[in-house]
Write a structure and sequence with these properties.
This protein is of the alpha/beta class and 237 residues long. Helices cover 32% and strands 24% of the residues. It has eight helices and eleven strands. The chain has a seven-stranded mixed sheet, sandwiched between helices. Strands 2-3 form a two-stranded antiparallel sheet. Strand 8 and strand 9 form a beta hairpin. The longest helix has 14 residues. The structure holds cytidine-5'-triphosphate and magnesium ion (MG). The site of cytidine-5'-triphosphate (CTP) has 22 residues, from helix 4.
Length: 237
């Protein structure tokens, strides 16, 4: 286990899976929020570019909805080809979209790790990618996570009383979430649609520990329209 060669990542051994098949309800635009522009490029392209820039990433698979297929194969085709993105059909739940991406790379012997990254997170830092990739190579499962900075309260008696929660052990989960391919396959084979809020939770359920790697809190997910303004401000810095 301490053999350094075992934790060394070869070029191209990671497949990035980008779930992009949502509809962006909370963003409230008439098309997928991922088509919104940030510095002249759609959000999904920023997310994919950051992964494509890493030498460990050999394949990029993006799960898209039936509704968006004409856009990805039409007006966006040049951007898709520029990053050599493989398009697959996503599903109703985010986990269905991830599974579609996983299935697309399952038989590729050159792939050791899968990095699942929300197409709605355009700002992930290169150093954070390097760190979470290295940790996953070492442990089999690692995710980026940001320490909670807010003061947290637990409501008691229907909110008429409250207690302060110790936040020192609490993090918010980000992406990428990176797993050895066999670990993620086992987790998804056991997944029978029981609700889970992220991929790491499915891996926890098979009893495999998931390491937390400190990631920058500016790796935000574009959820509401104002998040786009925040992303612009972060990029302008
Ligand atoms: N996603 C997906 N397939 C789904 C649902 C979501 O691939 N069935 C993707 C989204 O496209 C996004 C990522 O998962 O890149 C994170 O999801 P979220 O931020 O919730 O995006 P949406 O589901 O599109 O937004 P909303 O929940 O507001 O409708
Ligand atoms: Mg959603």
């Amino acid at each position: 286990m301490n053999d350094p060669d075992q934790t060394k990542l070869t070029t191209g051994c990671i497949a990035a899976v980008l779930p992009a098949a949502g509809s962006g309800q909370r963003f409230g635009s008439d098309r997928n929020k991922l088509f919104a522009m940030l510095r002249g490029k759609p959000i999904w392209f920023h997310a994919a570019s950051r992964l494509a820039a890493r030498p460990e990433v050999g394949r990029i698979v993006m799960a898209i909805s039936e509704q968006d297929e004409a856009d990805f194969r039409g007006p966006f085709a040049e951007l898709v080809n520029e990053l050599r993105i493989e398009l697959v059909r996503g599903g109703d739940q985010r986990s269905d979209s991830v599974r579609a991406g996983l299935d697309a790379v399952a038989d590729d012997k050159s792939i050791e790790l899968i990095a699942i990254h929300d197409a709605a997170r355009p700002l992930v830092r290169d150093a954070d990618l390097a760190a979470v990739f290295a940790k996953a190579a070492e442990t089999g499962a690692a995710i980026l996570a940001a320490p909670i900075t807010a003061t947290l309260k637990r409501a008691l008696s229907d909110g008429n009383a409250s207690l302060t929660v110790d936040r020192s052990e609490l993090y918010s989960a980000l992406t990428p979430q990176v797993f050895r391919i066999d670990v993620l396959r086992r987790a998804y084979d056991r997944h029978r649609g029981r609700p889970a809020t992220d991929d790491a939770q499915l891996v926890e359920r098979i009893g495999h520990p998931v390491a937390l790697v400190h990631g920058s809190a500016d790796n935000i997910k574009i959820t509401h329209p104002e998040d786009l303004r925040i992303a612009e401000a972060i990029l302008a810095r």
